[in-house]
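Need the bound structure for adenosine-5'-triphosphate, inputs here:
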Amino acid sequence: MKERKPTSASDIKIYGRLLRYTKGSWLYFILSFIGYLMYGAMEPALAYLLQIVVDTLESPELENARANLAEDRTFIPLLILGIFFIRGVGTLLGGYSMAIIGNRLVFDIRVAMFNKLNLLPSSYFHKEPSGRLLSKLTFNTEQVIGSVTHAIRIILREGLTVIGLFAFMLYTNWRLSLFFLLIVPVIGFIVNYASKRFRKLSHRIQNAMGGVTDVASEAIKGHEVVKIFGGKQYEQSRFYEASKFNLRSQLKMELTKSLNVPIVQFIVAMAMAAIIWLALEPTISSNMTAGHFVAFIGAAGMLSKPMRQLTEVTSILQKGLAAAQSIFEFLDVPNEADTGKLKAQTLAGKIAFNNVSFAYSPESKQVLNNINLEVPAGKTLALVGRSGGGKSTIANLIPRFYDITQGSLTIDNHAITDYELDGLRSNIALVNQHIVIFNGSVRENIAYGGLQGATHEEVVFAAKAANAWSFIEKLPHGLDTVVGENGTLLSGGQRQRIAIARAILKNAPILILDEATSALDSESERAIQQALDSLMRDRTTIAIAHRLSTIEKADIIAVIEQGQIVERGTHVELLALNGVYSQLHQQQFRENS
Ligand SMILES: Nc1ncnc2c1ncn2[C@@H]1O[C@H](COP(=O)(O)OP(=O)(O)OP(=O)(O)O)[C@@H](O)[C@H]1O
Ligand SMILES: [Mg+2]
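Answer from helper R.:
Posting the output first, comments after.
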C-alpha cells in the first residue's frame, strides 16, 4: 500500500466514489436527514425551555409568577416529555436509516471486491499475500462503515444541532454570538493538526492489521509444516511482532484521540469563560433578561458536545478514507486482458508455439526461451524433464493464466489473444499440479462451475472413468459426502482422481494434465491410464509427467531443460538418440526393477 497523499482533492474524489455506491439509498438519506433534523431542533428547544422557566420565576411580579408557574405545572413537564420524545424518534429514524445505508454500502463493496477477485490476472495472486486480500475484504470494508455511517451521522446530527443552537444564540444575543464565533478558527486549527496525525497512524494500523492476518493465515494453512519443522517458536515470535506493532500503532492513535478531546474541551471552556466575562459587561447584556442569559449560556454549553464530536469526524473520516482508498486501489487493478473478439465455440485443438519466450515479471529472468512446438489437433504432447525446467509454465500459457512475452502462441491458427477469454477457457480441461478441491460435496466438486448442469449419470460416468467410483461409493454419503476445506477428508490420490473426473466431465477438446497421476500407486495409475488413453484419443492433450511410463505412447515427447526444448520425438526415437531422455528412462527403469 502506498502512503496516502494528504490532499483534500483526492479525499473528495474517494468520498465521491463511495457516495456513488450509496446512490440507491437516497430515500434513507432523506429519512435520516429528517430524523436528525428533529433531533437537532430539540436542543435549542431545551434551551428555550430553560429561558421560560427562569423568566417566569424571575418576573418582577413574584406573586403573578408563582400563579403562572402553577398554571404551567403540567405544561412544562409535558413539554419536556414531548421534546425528549421527538428527540428519541429523531435518533431512531436517523440512526437506523444511516445503518441501512452503511451496511448496504459494505455489502455492495464486498460483492464488487469478490467479483473483482475473479477477474484478476494470476500474477496478482502471487504478488499479494492471501491474508492481505482477506483483510481487505473484511477489515477494510468494516472500516468503511465507520467512515460513511458514523461520520455522516455525526455531521448530520451534530451539525444540525450546532446550527440550531447557534441560531438560538443569535436570536437571543447576536453580539455575544459573534464573539463566540471568533473562537471557532482556533478550534479548527487544533483539529486540523490532529487529523494529520490520525491519517498517518490509521494507515499504519491497517498495514499492521494486514501483517497480523498474513501470519495467522499462513500458520493455519501450514499447521503441519509448522509442527514438524519446529516452526512454533518462529511463527509465534512472528505473530508476536506483528501484533506488537499493531498494539503500538493502536495505542498511539488512542493517545492522540484522547489528547484531542480534552484540548478541544478546554478551548471551549475558555470561550465560555470569555463569554461570561463579556456578558457581565452591562452594555452588551443590557436588554437581556435572566432567562435569556441563562438560556444563552446553556446553549453555548450544549454546543461543546456536538462541537467536540464534529472535531472527531475528521479522524473517523480519515480512517474510513484510508480503508476506502486501499479498496479502490484493489478495484482498480487492471483486469486480465480480454480484448480478443473471436468466439471460440468448439476448437479443433491445433496448438503451435513459435519462438515463445516468457518471464513471470519484467524484472525476473526468462523462464522459457524460444520454445517451438506444434501439436496437431487430437494428438498428445508429453512434456518431461527435471523439476523447475518450465513444464508447468508452458502448460499455463495455453489457458492464458499468463501471457507470453515474445513469439506467438496459436490455437487453430489464431493467436490465443484473439479469442474471447471465456470461450478459450471453455475449450480447455485442466488437472493442476496443485489439486484444488472446494469445500462442498464430491458431486459439487466434480460437476463444478459450468458443469453444474451435468446429470447424475454423467457424473457417475466421469467418476468411474477416473477410477474414483470405487472409493466414492464407500464414502458415508456417496457422491453427496462433504469433503472439507480443500478436500482434507480425502487422500492425495483420491483428490487427484476427483480432479481427473472433473476434467473428464468437462469433455473439452484440449486437455492439460500436469502431473495428474503423480499421487497414485502404479496399480491405480494403470487403471486410470486406460481411461485417460481413451479420453486422449480424440482430443489434444498436453501431459506432464515425471513417471515416464505414463507418457510412452505420446505422439510427441519434448524434453524441457532450463526453459528450452533439448530433445523431441517419439519414445522410440528419443531412446535411440541416447540423450537426456534415454538417461532419465534408464534411471527410472533401474529404480523400478
Ligand atoms: N508464479 C511464478 N512466479 C515466478 N516464477 C515462477 C512462478 N512459477 C514458476 N516460476 C519459476 O519458473 C520456473 C519453471 O517453473 P515450472 O513450474 O514451470 O517448472 P516445472 O518444470 O513445472 O517443474 P516441476 O516439475 O517441479 O513441476 C522455475 O524456475 C520457477 O522458479
Ligand atoms: Mg510443474
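Comments: Residues 174-221 form the longest helix (48 residues). Strands lie at 351-358, 368-375, 380-384, 406-411, 414-415, 428-431, 510-514, 540-544, 556-561, 564-569.
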